[in-house]
Design brief:
Length: about 425
Protein backbone atom coordinates (compact mmCIF):
# COMPACT_ATOMS: atom_id res chain seq x y z
CA UNK A 1 0.00 0.00 0.00
CA UNK A 2 1.31 3.48 -0.90
CA UNK A 3 2.04 5.69 2.08
CA UNK A 4 1.26 9.34 1.40
CA UNK A 5 3.39 12.03 3.01
CA UNK A 6 2.46 15.47 4.24
CA UNK A 7 3.92 18.03 6.63
CA UNK A 8 0.87 18.47 8.85
CA UNK A 9 -2.07 16.09 9.11
CA UNK A 10 -5.18 17.41 10.86
CA UNK A 11 -7.59 14.74 12.09
CA UNK A 12 -11.18 16.00 12.33
CA UNK A 13 -12.73 18.91 10.45
CA UNK A 14 -14.78 20.75 13.09
CA UNK A 15 -14.03 24.31 14.15
CA UNK A 16 -10.72 23.31 15.76
CA UNK A 17 -9.53 21.25 12.80
CA UNK A 18 -10.55 23.81 10.17
CA UNK A 19 -8.72 26.59 12.01
CA UNK A 20 -5.70 24.34 12.61
CA UNK A 21 -5.41 23.33 8.95
CA UNK A 22 -5.79 26.95 7.81
CA UNK A 23 -3.05 28.11 10.19
CA UNK A 24 -0.68 25.27 9.27
CA UNK A 25 -1.13 25.82 5.52
CA UNK A 26 -0.82 29.60 5.94
CA UNK A 27 2.53 28.97 7.63
CA UNK A 28 3.71 27.47 4.35
CA UNK A 29 3.45 23.79 5.27
CA UNK A 30 1.78 21.14 3.14
CA UNK A 31 -1.38 20.37 5.10
CA UNK A 32 -4.03 17.68 4.82
CA UNK A 33 -7.30 17.67 6.79
CA UNK A 34 -9.17 14.40 7.16
CA UNK A 35 -12.88 14.39 8.05
CA UNK A 36 -15.03 11.30 8.39
CA UNK A 37 -18.32 12.99 7.45
CA UNK A 38 -19.34 14.08 3.93
CA UNK A 39 -17.93 17.56 4.49
CA UNK A 40 -16.11 19.46 7.23
CA UNK A 41 -17.90 21.61 9.83
CA UNK A 42 -18.34 19.17 12.70
CA UNK A 43 -21.05 19.78 15.26
CA UNK A 44 -21.54 23.33 13.95
CA UNK A 45 -23.49 21.98 10.97
CA UNK A 46 -26.40 20.88 13.16
CA UNK A 47 -26.43 23.99 15.39
CA UNK A 48 -28.78 26.17 13.33
CA UNK A 49 -29.40 28.60 16.21
CA UNK A 50 -27.54 31.93 16.38
CA UNK A 51 -24.85 32.54 19.01
CA UNK A 52 -21.62 31.66 17.24
CA UNK A 53 -18.70 33.91 16.39
CA UNK A 54 -19.41 36.91 18.61
CA UNK A 55 -15.70 37.14 19.52
CA UNK A 56 -14.04 35.90 16.33
CA UNK A 57 -16.19 37.71 13.76
CA UNK A 58 -17.85 40.33 16.00
CA UNK A 59 -21.26 39.24 14.79
CA UNK A 60 -23.76 36.60 15.78
CA UNK A 61 -23.80 33.73 13.29
CA UNK A 62 -25.52 30.35 13.17
CA UNK A 63 -23.34 27.24 13.41
CA UNK A 64 -23.40 26.53 9.64
CA UNK A 65 -22.59 30.21 8.90
CA UNK A 66 -19.63 30.06 11.28
CA UNK A 67 -18.46 26.80 9.67
CA UNK A 68 -18.81 28.33 6.17
CA UNK A 69 -16.51 31.20 7.18
CA UNK A 70 -13.91 28.74 8.45
CA UNK A 71 -14.18 26.68 5.26
CA UNK A 72 -13.66 29.83 3.13
CA UNK A 73 -10.54 30.67 5.15
CA UNK A 74 -9.32 27.09 4.73
CA UNK A 75 -9.83 27.19 0.96
CA UNK A 76 -7.81 30.40 0.72
CA UNK A 77 -4.98 28.84 2.74
CA UNK A 78 -4.39 26.03 0.25
CA UNK A 79 -4.86 23.19 2.74
CA UNK A 80 -6.18 19.98 1.20
CA UNK A 81 -9.34 18.34 2.56
CA UNK A 82 -10.18 14.67 2.38
CA UNK A 83 -13.77 14.07 3.52
CA UNK A 84 -15.60 10.74 3.97
CA UNK A 85 -12.40 9.32 5.39
CA UNK A 86 -11.89 8.09 8.95
CA UNK A 87 -8.65 7.75 10.80
CA UNK A 88 -8.44 4.24 12.22
CA UNK A 89 -5.12 4.27 14.03
CA UNK A 90 -1.94 6.21 14.67
CA UNK A 91 1.30 4.30 15.16
CA UNK A 92 3.27 6.35 17.68
CA UNK A 93 6.60 4.73 16.72
CA UNK A 94 6.46 5.22 12.94
CA UNK A 95 3.90 8.09 12.98
CA UNK A 96 2.02 6.23 10.24
CA UNK A 97 -1.70 7.05 10.25
CA UNK A 98 -4.10 4.45 8.89
CA UNK A 99 -7.30 5.74 7.29
CA UNK A 100 -10.31 4.27 5.53
CA UNK A 101 -12.83 5.72 3.09
CA UNK A 102 -14.80 4.90 -0.06
CA UNK A 103 -11.56 4.29 -2.00
CA UNK A 104 -10.32 1.84 0.63
CA UNK A 105 -7.45 1.95 3.09
CA UNK A 106 -4.75 4.61 2.83
CA UNK A 107 -1.80 5.29 5.05
CA UNK A 108 -0.31 8.72 5.61
CA UNK A 109 3.00 9.63 7.19
CA UNK A 110 2.95 13.22 8.41
CA UNK A 111 5.71 15.15 10.13
CA UNK A 112 3.22 16.53 12.66
CA UNK A 113 -0.38 15.72 13.58
CA UNK A 114 -3.10 18.00 14.97
CA UNK A 115 -5.73 15.94 16.75
CA UNK A 116 -9.14 17.65 16.61
CA UNK A 117 -11.72 14.86 16.79
CA UNK A 118 -14.20 16.70 19.05
CA UNK A 119 -16.29 15.08 21.77
CA UNK A 120 -19.09 12.52 21.93
CA UNK A 121 -22.21 12.51 24.08
CA UNK A 122 -22.55 10.50 27.26
CA UNK A 123 -25.07 7.77 26.39
CA UNK A 124 -28.09 6.37 28.26
CA UNK A 125 -26.12 3.28 29.31
CA UNK A 126 -23.69 5.45 31.29
CA UNK A 127 -26.48 6.74 33.57
CA UNK A 128 -27.42 3.49 35.30
CA UNK A 129 -31.14 4.24 35.22
CA UNK A 130 -33.02 1.03 36.01
CA UNK A 131 -35.91 -0.23 33.88
CA UNK A 132 -36.48 -1.29 30.27
CA UNK A 133 -34.79 0.22 27.23
CA UNK A 134 -37.75 1.37 25.09
CA UNK A 135 -37.55 3.42 21.91
CA UNK A 136 -37.81 7.15 22.62
CA UNK A 137 -34.62 7.87 24.57
CA UNK A 138 -32.25 10.08 22.56
CA UNK A 139 -29.09 11.97 23.30
CA UNK A 140 -29.61 15.69 22.70
CA UNK A 141 -27.08 15.85 19.88
CA UNK A 142 -28.76 12.98 18.05
CA UNK A 143 -32.18 14.60 18.50
CA UNK A 144 -30.70 17.86 17.19
CA UNK A 145 -29.32 16.09 14.14
CA UNK A 146 -32.67 14.38 13.44
CA UNK A 147 -34.62 17.63 13.69
CA UNK A 148 -32.19 20.09 12.10
CA UNK A 149 -30.56 17.97 9.41
CA UNK A 150 -33.15 15.28 8.58
CA UNK A 151 -36.42 17.08 9.37
CA UNK A 152 -37.55 14.25 11.68
CA UNK A 153 -39.23 14.66 15.07
CA UNK A 154 -38.10 12.31 17.86
CA UNK A 155 -41.60 12.28 19.48
CA UNK A 156 -44.60 14.35 20.60
CA UNK A 157 -44.16 14.94 24.34
CA UNK A 158 -40.65 15.26 25.72
CA UNK A 159 -38.76 15.59 28.97
CA UNK A 160 -35.15 16.69 28.93
CA UNK A 161 -32.56 15.46 31.40
CA UNK A 162 -29.65 17.86 31.81
CA UNK A 163 -29.60 21.64 31.50
CA UNK A 164 -26.32 21.99 29.63
CA UNK A 165 -26.43 24.18 26.54
CA UNK A 166 -27.35 21.36 24.19
CA UNK A 167 -30.30 20.37 26.41
CA UNK A 168 -31.52 23.96 26.67
CA UNK A 169 -31.21 24.58 22.96
CA UNK A 170 -33.05 21.35 22.18
CA UNK A 171 -35.86 22.29 24.59
CA UNK A 172 -36.50 25.43 22.53
CA UNK A 173 -36.00 23.69 19.21
CA UNK A 174 -38.47 20.91 20.01
CA UNK A 175 -40.98 23.43 21.38
CA UNK A 176 -40.74 25.48 18.17
CA UNK A 177 -41.27 22.30 16.14
CA UNK A 178 -44.53 21.58 18.01
CA UNK A 179 -43.28 19.01 20.52
CA UNK A 180 -44.72 19.53 24.01
CA UNK A 181 -41.66 19.95 26.24
CA UNK A 182 -42.86 19.24 29.79
CA UNK A 183 -39.66 20.30 31.49
CA UNK A 184 -35.92 20.14 31.91
CA UNK A 185 -34.44 18.26 34.88
CA UNK A 186 -31.05 19.20 36.31
CA UNK A 187 -29.18 17.15 38.91
CA UNK A 188 -27.27 20.14 40.23
CA UNK A 189 -28.84 23.01 42.18
CA UNK A 190 -27.90 25.41 39.34
CA UNK A 191 -28.37 25.26 35.55
CA UNK A 192 -25.61 23.60 33.53
CA UNK A 193 -25.79 25.93 30.52
CA UNK A 194 -25.11 29.58 29.81
CA UNK A 195 -27.48 32.06 31.49
CA UNK A 196 -28.48 33.50 28.12
CA UNK A 197 -29.61 30.03 27.05
CA UNK A 198 -31.71 29.51 30.21
CA UNK A 199 -33.49 32.79 29.49
CA UNK A 200 -33.81 32.47 25.71
CA UNK A 201 -34.58 28.74 25.55
CA UNK A 202 -36.67 28.06 28.68
CA UNK A 203 -37.96 31.24 30.32
CA UNK A 204 -39.09 32.82 27.04
CA UNK A 205 -41.22 29.76 26.26
CA UNK A 206 -42.47 28.94 29.75
CA UNK A 207 -40.62 25.61 29.90
CA UNK A 208 -40.08 24.65 33.57
CA UNK A 209 -36.59 23.92 34.90
CA UNK A 210 -36.47 21.46 37.81
CA UNK A 211 -33.17 21.96 39.61
CA UNK A 212 -31.82 19.20 41.93
CA UNK A 213 -33.89 16.57 40.10
CA UNK A 214 -33.06 13.43 38.17
CA UNK A 215 -34.69 10.52 36.36
CA UNK A 216 -35.02 7.43 38.54
CA UNK A 217 -36.87 5.10 36.14
CA UNK A 218 -38.11 4.86 32.57
CA UNK A 219 -41.28 3.02 31.57
CA UNK A 220 -42.60 1.36 28.43
CA UNK A 221 -41.96 -1.89 26.63
CA UNK A 222 -41.60 -0.94 22.99
CA UNK A 223 -42.03 2.88 23.04
CA UNK A 224 -41.33 5.06 26.08
CA UNK A 225 -44.58 5.79 27.96
CA UNK A 226 -43.29 7.69 30.96
CA UNK A 227 -40.45 8.67 33.23
CA UNK A 228 -40.21 8.78 37.02
CA UNK A 229 -38.21 11.70 38.38
CA UNK A 230 -37.23 12.62 41.93
CA UNK A 231 -35.58 15.44 43.82
CA UNK A 232 -31.98 14.74 44.87
CA UNK A 233 -29.96 15.56 47.97
CA UNK A 234 -26.63 17.43 48.03
CA UNK A 235 -24.81 14.26 46.90
CA UNK A 236 -27.13 13.75 43.93
CA UNK A 237 -29.00 10.84 45.58
CA UNK A 238 -32.80 10.64 45.01
CA UNK A 239 -34.79 11.68 48.09
CA UNK A 240 -37.39 9.00 49.00
CA UNK A 241 -40.98 10.18 48.70
CA UNK A 242 -40.25 12.93 46.14
CA UNK A 243 -40.91 10.83 43.01
CA UNK A 244 -43.21 12.23 40.32
CA UNK A 245 -44.38 10.80 37.02
CA UNK A 246 -44.03 12.48 33.63
CA UNK A 247 -46.15 11.01 30.86
CA UNK A 248 -43.84 11.40 27.87
CA UNK A 249 -42.91 9.44 24.76
CA UNK A 250 -39.47 11.04 24.50
CA UNK A 251 -36.59 11.49 26.92
CA UNK A 252 -33.73 13.68 25.71
CA UNK A 253 -30.40 13.23 27.48
CA UNK A 254 -28.03 16.15 27.71
CA UNK A 255 -25.71 14.76 30.33
CA UNK A 256 -22.27 15.67 29.17
CA UNK A 257 -19.71 15.38 26.43
CA UNK A 258 -16.57 13.26 26.56
CA UNK A 259 -13.49 14.09 24.45
CA UNK A 260 -13.05 11.59 21.64
CA UNK A 261 -9.49 10.61 22.57
CA UNK A 262 -9.33 6.85 21.98
CA UNK A 263 -7.00 7.14 18.97
CA UNK A 264 -4.26 8.71 21.09
CA UNK A 265 -4.98 7.44 24.61
CA UNK A 266 -2.79 4.32 24.16
CA UNK A 267 0.34 6.47 23.88
CA UNK A 268 -0.23 9.91 25.44
CA UNK A 269 -1.47 10.74 28.92
CA UNK A 270 -5.04 11.97 29.37
CA UNK A 271 -6.03 14.50 31.99
CA UNK A 272 -8.33 12.84 34.53
CA UNK A 273 -10.85 15.71 34.62
CA UNK A 274 -10.65 17.09 31.06
CA UNK A 275 -10.59 13.48 29.81
CA UNK A 276 -8.63 14.56 26.74
CA UNK A 277 -4.86 14.52 26.17
CA UNK A 278 -2.70 16.65 28.45
CA UNK A 279 -1.36 19.58 26.44
CA UNK A 280 1.09 22.40 27.07
CA UNK A 281 0.55 25.96 25.94
CA UNK A 282 1.66 25.05 22.40
CA UNK A 283 -1.18 22.48 22.44
CA UNK A 284 1.49 19.81 22.32
CA UNK A 285 0.72 16.43 23.89
CA UNK A 286 3.30 14.14 25.47
CA UNK A 287 4.29 13.00 21.96
CA UNK A 288 6.34 15.92 20.57
CA UNK A 289 4.86 15.63 17.04
CA UNK A 290 1.23 15.36 18.24
CA UNK A 291 -0.76 18.53 18.92
CA UNK A 292 -4.41 18.58 20.03
CA UNK A 293 -7.08 21.27 20.34
CA UNK A 294 -10.80 21.88 20.76
CA UNK A 295 -13.28 19.51 22.34
CA UNK A 296 -10.96 16.53 21.91
CA UNK A 297 -8.80 18.10 24.65
CA UNK A 298 -11.54 19.39 26.99
CA UNK A 299 -15.12 20.43 26.39
CA UNK A 300 -14.97 24.16 25.61
CA UNK A 301 -17.83 26.61 26.09
CA UNK A 302 -17.55 28.78 22.97
CA UNK A 303 -16.58 27.94 19.44
CA UNK A 304 -14.49 31.13 19.24
CA UNK A 305 -12.10 29.69 21.84
CA UNK A 306 -12.10 26.34 20.02
CA UNK A 307 -11.13 27.99 16.73
CA UNK A 308 -8.45 30.11 18.45
CA UNK A 309 -6.98 27.00 20.07
CA UNK A 310 -7.06 25.13 16.76
CA UNK A 311 -5.25 27.95 14.97
CA UNK A 312 -2.51 28.03 17.61
CA UNK A 313 -2.11 24.25 17.48
CA UNK A 314 -1.88 24.41 13.67
CA UNK A 315 0.79 27.11 13.81
CA UNK A 316 2.91 25.22 16.34
CA UNK A 317 2.48 21.95 14.43
CA UNK A 318 3.68 23.73 11.26
CA UNK A 319 6.73 25.01 13.12
CA UNK A 320 7.48 21.52 14.38
CA UNK A 321 7.09 20.10 10.86
CA UNK A 322 9.54 22.73 9.57
CA UNK A 323 12.07 21.85 12.26
CA UNK A 324 11.76 25.38 13.70
CA UNK A 325 10.47 24.29 17.05
CA UNK A 326 12.16 25.96 19.99
CA UNK A 327 10.59 24.59 23.08
CA UNK A 328 10.84 26.40 26.40
CA UNK A 329 10.78 24.83 29.82
CA UNK A 330 7.60 22.80 30.35
CA UNK A 331 6.05 23.39 33.77
CA UNK A 332 2.95 21.41 34.82
CA UNK A 333 -0.17 23.26 35.93
CA UNK A 334 -1.75 21.53 38.92
CA UNK A 335 -5.28 22.04 40.19
CA UNK A 336 -5.87 23.68 43.53
CA UNK A 337 -9.31 24.29 45.01
CA UNK A 338 -12.35 24.99 42.83
CA UNK A 339 -10.78 24.09 39.49
CA UNK A 340 -12.37 21.49 37.21
CA UNK A 341 -11.55 21.65 33.48
CA UNK A 342 -8.18 23.29 32.92
CA UNK A 343 -6.44 23.98 29.59
CA UNK A 344 -3.59 23.86 28.95
CA UNK A 345 -2.29 21.49 31.60
CA UNK A 346 1.30 22.74 31.36
CA UNK A 347 3.04 26.03 30.57
CA UNK A 348 5.78 26.48 28.02
CA UNK A 349 8.10 29.10 29.52
CA UNK A 350 8.84 30.67 26.12
CA UNK A 351 5.36 31.86 25.08
CA UNK A 352 2.48 33.95 26.47
CA UNK A 353 -0.73 32.00 26.88
CA UNK A 354 -4.39 31.96 27.92
CA UNK A 355 -5.41 29.64 30.76
CA UNK A 356 -9.03 28.49 30.56
CA UNK A 357 -10.76 26.81 33.48
CA UNK A 358 -14.17 25.85 34.81
CA UNK A 359 -15.33 26.25 38.40
CA UNK A 360 -17.49 23.60 40.09
CA UNK A 361 -20.30 25.95 41.19
CA UNK A 362 -21.48 29.51 40.57
CA UNK A 363 -19.58 32.18 42.54
CA UNK A 364 -20.51 35.83 42.80
CA UNK A 365 -16.90 36.87 43.20
CA UNK A 366 -13.80 34.81 42.61
CA UNK A 367 -10.07 35.24 42.54
CA UNK A 368 -7.96 33.05 40.26
CA UNK A 369 -4.48 32.60 41.69
CA UNK A 370 -1.53 31.03 39.91
CA UNK A 371 1.71 29.98 41.56
CA UNK A 372 0.54 30.98 45.05
CA UNK A 373 -0.29 34.53 43.96
CA UNK A 374 2.49 35.34 41.44
CA UNK A 375 -0.46 36.00 39.15
CA UNK A 376 -3.87 36.83 40.56
CA UNK A 377 -7.04 38.00 38.78
CA UNK A 378 -10.47 38.89 40.13
CA UNK A 379 -13.74 37.95 38.43
CA UNK A 380 -17.38 38.74 39.08
CA UNK A 381 -20.16 36.19 38.46
CA UNK A 382 -18.30 33.04 37.41
CA UNK A 383 -20.35 30.00 36.45
CA UNK A 384 -19.51 26.37 35.60
CA UNK A 385 -20.99 26.76 32.10
CA UNK A 386 -18.61 29.56 31.16
CA UNK A 387 -14.86 29.07 31.06
CA UNK A 388 -12.85 31.62 32.99
CA UNK A 389 -10.01 33.00 30.87
CA UNK A 390 -6.74 34.24 32.35
CA UNK A 391 -4.38 35.86 29.84
CA UNK A 392 -0.72 35.51 30.77
CA UNK A 393 1.88 37.83 29.29
CA UNK A 394 5.36 36.55 28.38
CA UNK A 395 6.67 38.15 31.61
CA UNK A 396 4.01 36.46 33.76
CA UNK A 397 4.74 33.08 32.16
CA UNK A 398 8.46 33.56 32.70
CA UNK A 399 7.91 34.33 36.39
CA UNK A 400 5.62 31.32 36.86
CA UNK A 401 7.94 29.01 34.93
CA UNK A 402 10.61 29.42 37.61
CA UNK A 403 8.47 27.14 39.81
CA UNK A 404 8.64 23.33 39.63
CA UNK A 405 4.87 23.32 39.12
CA UNK A 406 2.22 26.02 39.03
CA UNK A 407 -0.82 25.64 41.24
CA UNK A 408 -4.04 27.07 39.79
CA UNK A 409 -6.73 27.80 42.36
CA UNK A 410 -9.96 29.74 42.59
CA UNK A 411 -10.72 31.45 45.87
CA UNK A 412 -14.36 32.40 46.38
CA UNK A 413 -15.06 35.91 47.58
C1 LIG B 1 -25.85 21.85 20.62
C2 LIG B 1 -24.64 22.72 20.73
C3 LIG B 1 -24.83 24.07 20.82
C4 LIG B 1 -23.73 24.92 20.87
N1 LIG B 1 -23.95 26.25 20.92
C5 LIG B 1 -22.91 27.11 20.87
C6 LIG B 1 -23.12 28.53 20.78
O1 LIG B 1 -24.26 29.02 20.77
N2 LIG B 1 -22.02 29.33 20.71
C7 LIG B 1 -20.76 28.82 20.69
O2 LIG B 1 -19.79 29.57 20.60
N3 LIG B 1 -20.53 27.48 20.79
C8 LIG B 1 -21.57 26.62 20.87
N4 LIG B 1 -21.35 25.26 20.92
C9 LIG B 1 -19.98 24.77 21.05
C10 LIG B 1 -19.22 24.63 19.73
O3 LIG B 1 -20.10 24.32 18.70
C11 LIG B 1 -18.18 23.53 19.87
O4 LIG B 1 -17.36 23.81 20.98
C12 LIG B 1 -17.25 23.42 18.65
O5 LIG B 1 -17.98 23.47 17.45
C13 LIG B 1 -16.45 22.12 18.76
O6 LIG B 1 -15.54 22.03 17.69
P1 LIG B 1 -14.47 20.84 17.60
O7 LIG B 1 -13.74 21.06 16.33
O8 LIG B 1 -13.68 20.74 18.84
O9 LIG B 1 -15.33 19.50 17.53
P2 LIG B 1 -16.40 18.96 16.46
O10 LIG B 1 -17.23 20.03 15.89
O11 LIG B 1 -17.10 17.84 17.15
O12 LIG B 1 -15.50 18.37 15.28
C14 LIG B 1 -14.81 17.15 15.35
C15 LIG B 1 -14.76 16.57 13.96
O13 LIG B 1 -13.87 15.46 13.95
C16 LIG B 1 -14.41 14.46 13.11
N5 LIG B 1 -13.80 13.18 13.50
C17 LIG B 1 -13.86 12.59 14.72
N6 LIG B 1 -13.16 11.44 14.72
C18 LIG B 1 -12.64 11.31 13.48
C19 LIG B 1 -11.82 10.30 12.86
N7 LIG B 1 -11.41 9.22 13.53
N8 LIG B 1 -11.48 10.47 11.57
C20 LIG B 1 -11.90 11.58 10.87
N9 LIG B 1 -12.67 12.55 11.41
C21 LIG B 1 -13.03 12.41 12.70
C22 LIG B 1 -15.90 14.55 13.38
O14 LIG B 1 -16.66 13.96 12.34
C23 LIG B 1 -16.11 16.06 13.48
O15 LIG B 1 -16.42 16.65 12.24
C24 LIG B 1 -22.42 24.38 20.86
C25 LIG B 1 -22.22 23.00 20.79
C26 LIG B 1 -23.32 22.18 20.71
C27 LIG B 1 -23.09 20.68 20.61
Amino acid sequence: MTTYRTDVLVIGGGAAGLAAATAAASSGRETLLIEREDSPGGVLEQCIHPGFGVHRYKEELTGPEFAARLVEELERSGAEVLSKRSVLSIDPKTRVVETTGPEGLRTIKPRAVVFTTGARERPFGALRIPGPRPVGVFTAGLAQKLVNLYNLLPGRRALILGSGDIGLIMARRLHLEGVEVVGVLELKPFPGGLTRNVVQCLDDFGIPLYLSHTVTAVHGTTRLTGVTAAAVDGDGRPIPGTGREFEVDTLILSVGLIPEAELVSPFVGLDSINRGPRVDSRWRTEAPWLFAAGNSVAVFDLVDAVAAAGAEAGRFAARFAAGEDEEGRIVPLVRGENVLHLVPTALDSSIPTVIRLRVPRPMERAQVRLGGGIVSRRFVGVRPAEMVEVRLSAEAVEALAKLAEVKVEVIEG
